[in-house]
């Protein structure tokens, strides 16, 4: 008898003892050998073998049930953990780790469908050794397992690369080969019939999957699909909630700003009614808003200040002012200061610069519009005191001069002397610039401190100065920088009386048309810069001035030194630029002609033989000769270049000395 009370010869019953003790497999075989040693007959030995087989089958059934219970417990734990997951990445990482442990696999990963691209991507992985990481793109929506025949149901393969039932793709085959995978099992993640992705496991040995393993993976896939859908819905809900919170915060900020503006606006109005000036308004605003505040006019001069505002970059300030005028809202500089436009009847009066301190908030910045409105009201009331140019005056000056009095008789206005010389510049943007944007850009342009109006899509500016070409280039550069477009500009002048403004405006407009005709859009020039074409553009056809500008240094040299460089220059052109031929025509030695031409180069500059300069020079020589012939016919001696009479109505200016490489600009 044994310790259990079972006789040694009852071998069949001892198998139950092994089952009860969960004995290892070798002990079952040992019972068969014991029966042989006890000398049992064949019938008894057959019963022992049958008992062994039944015991092993029972042992396997019990083992599978225990394993199934463990798997179910693991699934329950996974479901509980997924229920608390709020992050998609963390939830999927939990799924792939539990899948790898539950099925004892080498690799596990989840792929999600990308509807926009029509493929899928790896969302989470564990056990990968190569490129199979998060974000890796798979060419198919179904991940790895894609049957070659569409109707063939296929979810796993024991040896991926050797299975002819699968559809092939070089990228997938390369990935499987790089990972060293053989067995692959894949199940679908779906919710309410919507394909979300796939859950995959892989083994680096050839392996046939049992039905229980496939069933366990499908349960995990259902849990993962539900978690993915729940987390996505949760993310969408959080995003909508966050957006709603942001909109509510914005609404509260706007409401607070309106309340602050409503309380500040009456206070400033009352201060204005009590006779307060700009400094009083600025001081009161700073006491309520904090920080520092400066008021600038449109010429960028500081009219009033309270506190220290960091000095802005002037070019950036011009761009920001244009943007602020376009939006009607404060715009921030890189220095941290806010720019608020000052406008009246769509015209630019300047801007308010506000630099916030630590106590300032969004509501206080939003209340700046009320401050700017009151400041603009005060500046409009006291426009002359703050130096606002009279653009309406320029509009009148550009109108037709003949006028009609109350009696119906035509009369002319009395010319008025200007306080200083002015030039007229006409500017035109080359591109699609909205009219209001162009008008605002003209208003906020830095350094353009004269009068400005818009006519027929052109900007007409009356600017202080006596160099129309330089001022035209200033306008082209400033407006081009603000608009981001090339700006063609023509200048004319200077003028000293109001009756000359309209005529000078016409000349500047013709300069713009001439630049367009010369395919020089985006450039700037005045009539003097256009060479002989300036004679056609200029209203007065200043022949004397043109001749003096082009060959005046040569004529002056001849008059002072009693030389004949002009004749040498004319003969040189007549001989088609041949020094030898010119020497023969002048009956001079070629070296003498060469020395004279070198002297001409010193007087006119090194580029006088360039095509454009050469053409201007030949025309000037011809005009000088014709002018001399006309004077001889009238019986009057031809005056020298230094004795040219001034044209009526033009101021006399001292000529600059000639220098190499530059033609002095001397008016007639």
Q: Explain this structure to me?
A:
- By secondary structure, this protein is an alpha+beta fold.
- Helices cover 49% and strands 17% of the residues.
- The protein has helices spanning 11-21, 25-37, 42-83, 88-103, 170-179, 211-273, 278-289, 314-327, 362-366, 368-381, 391-397, 435-444, 468-483, 501-517, 533-537, 543-561, 565-574, 579-586, 590-604, 611-633, and strands spanning 107-114, 119-126, 137-138, 156-157, 183-191, 194-203, 292-297, 302-306, 331-332, 338-344, 347-355, 402-404, 410-412, 417-429, 451-455, 458-464, 487-497, 524-526.
- It is elongated, with a radius of gyration of 48 Å.
- Residues 1-8, 384-389, 401-406 and 633-668 have low confidence and may be disordered.
Shape designation: elongated
Radius of gyration: 48 Å
Largest sheet: 6 strands, antiparallel
Structural class by helix and strand composition: alpha+beta
- Helices, by number, come to 20
Beta-strand percentage range? 15-25%
Rounded mean pLDDT score: 75
Query: What is the distance, rounded to the nearest whole angstrom, between the alpha carbons of the first and last residues?
Result: 146 Å
* Number of extended strands: 18
- Give the strand order, joined by hyphens, for the main sheet: 3-2-1-6-5-4
**Into which percent range does the helicity of residues fall?**
40-55%
In the predicted model, the low-confidence regions spanning at least 5 consecutive residues are 1-8, 384-389, 401-406, 633-668
């Amino acid at each position: 008898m044994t310790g259990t009370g079972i006789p040694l010869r009852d071998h069949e019953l001892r198998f139950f003892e092994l089952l009860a003790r969960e004995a290892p497999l070798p002990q079952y075989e040992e019972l068969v050998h014991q029966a042989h040693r006890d000398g049992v007959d064949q019938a008894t030995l057959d019963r022992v073998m049958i008992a062994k087989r039944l015991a092993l089958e029972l042992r396997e059934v019990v083992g599978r049930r225990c394993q199934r219970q463990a798997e179910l417990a693991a699934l329950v734990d996974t479901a509980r953990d997924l229920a608390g997951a709020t992050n998609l990445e963390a939830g999927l990482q939990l799924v792939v780790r539990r899948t790898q442990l539950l099925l004892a696999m080498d690799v596990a990963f989840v792929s999600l469908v990308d509807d926009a691209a029509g493929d899928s991507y790896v969302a989470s992985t564990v056990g990968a050794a190569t490129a199979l990481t998060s974000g890796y793109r798979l060419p198919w929506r179904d991940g790895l397992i894609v049957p070659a025949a569409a109707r063939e149901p296929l979810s796993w393969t024991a040896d991926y690369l050797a299975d002819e039932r699968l559809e092939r793709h070089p990228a997938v085959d390369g990935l499987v080969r790089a990972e060293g995978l053989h067995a692959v099992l894949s199940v679908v993640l779906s919710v309410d019939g919507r394909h979300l992705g796939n859950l995959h496991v892989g083994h680096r040995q050839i392996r046939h999957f049992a039905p229980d393993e496939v069933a366990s993976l499908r349960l995990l896939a259902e849990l993962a699909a539900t978690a993915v859908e729940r987390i996505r819905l949760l993310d969408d809900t959080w995003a909508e909630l966050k957006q709603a919170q942001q909109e509510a915060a914005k609404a509260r900020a706007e409401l607070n700003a309106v309340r602050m503006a409503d309380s500040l606006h009456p206070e400033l109005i009352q201060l204005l009614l009590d006779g307060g000036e700009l400094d009083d308004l600025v001081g009161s605003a700073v006491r309520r808003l904090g920080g520092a505040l400066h008021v600038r006019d449109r010429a960028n001069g500081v009219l009033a200040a309270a506190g220290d505002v960091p000095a802005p970059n002037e070019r950036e300030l011009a761009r920001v002012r244009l943007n602020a005028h376009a939006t009607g809202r404060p715009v921030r500089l890189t220095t941290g200061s806010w720019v608020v436009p000052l406008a009246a009847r769509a015209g630019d009066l300047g801007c308010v610069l506000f630099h916030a301190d630590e106590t300032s908030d969004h509501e206080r910045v939003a209340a700046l519009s009320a401050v700017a409105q009151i400041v603009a009201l005060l500046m409009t009331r006291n426009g002359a005191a703050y130096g606002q140019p009279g653009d309406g005056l320029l509009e009148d000056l550009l109108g037709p001069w003949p006028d009609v009095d109350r009696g119906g008789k035509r009369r002319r206005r009395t010319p008025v002397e200007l306080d200083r010389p002015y030039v007229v510049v006409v500017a035109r943007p080359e591109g699609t610039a909205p009219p209001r944007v162009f008008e605002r850009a003209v208003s906020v342009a830095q350094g353009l401190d004269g009068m400005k109006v818009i006519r027929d899509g052109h900007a007409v500016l009356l600017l202080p100065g006596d160099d129309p070409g330089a001022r035209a280039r200033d306008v082209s550069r400033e407006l081009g920088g603000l608009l981001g477009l090339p700006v063609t500009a023509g200048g004319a002048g200077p003028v000293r009386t109001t009756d000359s403004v309209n005529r000078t405006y016409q000349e500047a407009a013709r300069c713009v048309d001439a630049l367009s005709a010369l395919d020089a859009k985006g450039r700037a020039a005045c009539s003097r810069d256009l060479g002989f074409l300036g004679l056609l553009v200029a209203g007065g056809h200043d022949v004397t001035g043109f001749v003096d500008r082009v060959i005046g240094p040569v004529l002056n040299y001849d008059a002072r030194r009693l030389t004949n460089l002009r004749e040498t220059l004319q003969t040189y052109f007549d001989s088609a630029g041949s020094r030898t031929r010119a020497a023969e025509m002048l009956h001079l030695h070629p070296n003498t002609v060469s020395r004279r031409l070198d002297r001409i180069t010193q007087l006119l500059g090194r580029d006088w033989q360039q095509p454009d300069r050469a053409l201007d020079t030949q025309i000037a020589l011809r005009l000088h000769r014709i002018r001399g012939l006309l004077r001889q016919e009238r019986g009057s001696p031809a005056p020298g270049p230094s004795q040219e009479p001034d044209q009526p109505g033009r101021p006399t200016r001292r000529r600059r000395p000639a220098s190499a490489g530059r033609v002095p600009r001397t008016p007639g």
